[in-house]
Design a protein that fits this description.
The protein has 196 residues and is mainly α. It has helices spanning 2-22, 29-63, 69-83, 88-102, 111-115, 142-155, and strands spanning 169-172, 185-189, 192-195. The protein is elongated and about 120 Å long.
Length: 196
């Protein structure tokens, strides 16, 4: 009987070994590593293509003029008259206040509309005092005017960084308007304080 059991065990073992030998073996460690590397490279290539397409779309959108020539002149005039004595960053901040107002329902929805808001009412009743002070709005300094125009072009492009953090109002240090007490201060840039 023990011989029969041994025979049966040996036969079972032989059949199991034979069955295992005929089953296809799995991938070797080298093959698994190669498959993983190929999958990783494919994922990287797909991500790079997505990033390339995203950058191309951003370039395309940046090349589309958002505003007409009249609006760009109004923005440059606001930068010039409100910020010509400020640093470049201060002038950029003035530009963003004008641009931020375009997105707010309380203000006109064109740059010239924002800049000229209040029309020709008496001084201190329009939004930008230089607009209704009765003086000529023609720039008098060619270099500062050229810089204001350049800033207007650059900051009106989609995605430009807003140093004012969404400000809609500002004043310089020589005045203390009543409205400043009820608005949230967002930045101090040069002599201008900015508020939301």
């Amino acid at each position: 009987m023990p011989t029969a059991r041994r025979f049966l065990a040996a036969t079972t073992l032989a059949l199991t070994v034979a069955a295992c030998a005929t089953e296809p073996a799995g991938p070797t460690p080298e093959e698994l590593a190669a498959q993983q590397i190929a999958a990783l490279e494919q994922a990287r290539a797909a991500e790079a293509e997505r990033e390339r397409a995203k950058a191309e779309e951003a370039r395309r959108l940046a090349a589309i003029p958002r505003f007409n020539d009249a609006d760009m002149r109004c923005l440059a005039l606001a930068i010039y008259w409100e910020g010509k004595s400020e640093s470049r960053q201060g002038q950029i901040a003035v530009a963003h206040v004008v641009l931020n107002r375009l997105e707010d329902a309380r203000f006109p929805h064109t740059i010239c509309g924002v800049v000229q808001d209040g029309g020709t009412r008496p001084l201190h009743q329009c939004q930008f005092s230089w607009w209704c002070d009765g003086k000529s709005d023609n720039p008098t300094n060619a270099a500062q005017w050229a810089e204001a125009q350049q800033i207007a072009r650059e900051e009106s492009r989609p995605g430009s960084a807003d140093p004012t953090r969404g400000a809609l109002y500002f004043h310089n240090g020589t005045v203390k308007p009543n409205w400043a007490r009820v608005r949230a201060r967002t930045a101090q840039i040069g002599r201008h304080t900015f508020y939301r």
